[in-house]
Specification:
- Belongs to the RutC family.
- One of its GO terms (cellular component) is cytosol.
- This is Reactive intermediate/imine deaminase.
- The chain is α+β, with helices and mostly antiparallel strands.
- It has a single domain, classed as RutC-like (60s Ribosomal Protein L30, Chain: A), CATH 3.30.1330.
- Strand 4, helix 2 and strand 5 form a beta-alpha-beta unit.
- The radius of gyration is 14 Å and the shape is globular.
- The two termini are 17 Å apart.
Length: 129
């Protein structure tokens, strides 16, 4: 049975989709842009944007009763692939701080444009053990 996941600790969906779906054994998040769920603000620098998107993913995963350590796959969409090394550094820091046993599998692609003209968007898949 599919369960819809929603938390006030991540931005509300801005279209006809949900923050995540929980299939029981797996949770799939929608792409998370770097919107602060409390203020609606978007950081201007790519490091802060990466951190906010990751924190939004974390809030959703935790609402599903899982942890960052349960994330097995992410997809990172960046507007400028020149930001790859900078985003990688923040991404690595986030997963280490959250005691991930190993980094998740990941794809990172450059895209022409993202909602609200942000610099990146991150989605995740987590597995319930």
């Amino acid at each position: 049975m599919t369960k819809v996941i929603h938390t006030e600790n991540a931005p509300a969906a801005i279209g006809p989709y949900v923050q995540a779906v929980d299939l029981g054994s797996m949770v799939f998040t929608s792409g998370q842009i770097p919107v602060n769920p409390k203020t609606g603000e978007i950081p201007t620098d790519i490091v802060a944007q990466a951190r906010q998107s990751l924190e939004n993913v974390k809030a959703i995963i935790e609402q599903a009763g899982l942890t960052v350590g349960d994330i097995v796959k992410t997809t990172v969409f960046v507007k400028d692939l020149n930001d790859f090394a900078t985003v990688n550094a923040e991404y690595e820091k986030f997963f280490k701080e959250n005691n991930h046993p190993a980094f998740p599998a990941r794809s990172c692609v450059e895209v022409a444009r993202l909602p609200k003209d942000v610099g990146l968007e991150i989605e995740a898949i987590a597995v319930r053990k």
